[in-house]
Amino acid sequence: MGTFTxxxxxxxxxxxxxxxxxxxxxxxxxxxYALLHPKLVKSYAMEALMQKTPKNGKPAxxxxxxxxxxxxxxxxxxxxxxxxxxxHRFEGKLLVGSALKFQKKVIHMAFFSITESEKAGExxxxxxxxxxxxx
Length: 135
Hints:
Layout: E1 12-17, E2 20-27, H1 30-50, H2 60-73, E3 75-80, E4 86-91, E5 95-102, E6 105-113, H3 116-120, H4 126-134
Antiparallel strand pairs: 1-2, 2-6, 3-4, 4-5, 5-6
């Protein structure tokens, strides 16, 4: 993906859109991440084209640190996975996340910033709901 090259041994990415930290993805295997990297970048790029977020003037490193601290403070619920392992769901003030663990090892983890209206449970847009059913 041109500018967004996957580095050797890379296992994840922390994504900013318009200077706001919007997401974090991590996989346990760098080889698995390398396969998903172009799709993740495309997903975030498409979101960036459709979204405008306010700028609060904080340095990116501070935003990243705050995001990860909030992720660590999220409330966690654990469920048995459909496949192998356990599905962990996380919810914070303006953050949601999930992780798949197998044999006490995180296989995949992702966290995303959310808005107050998303947290309140507004129904997803028609196209988004349709996409869930068509894959």
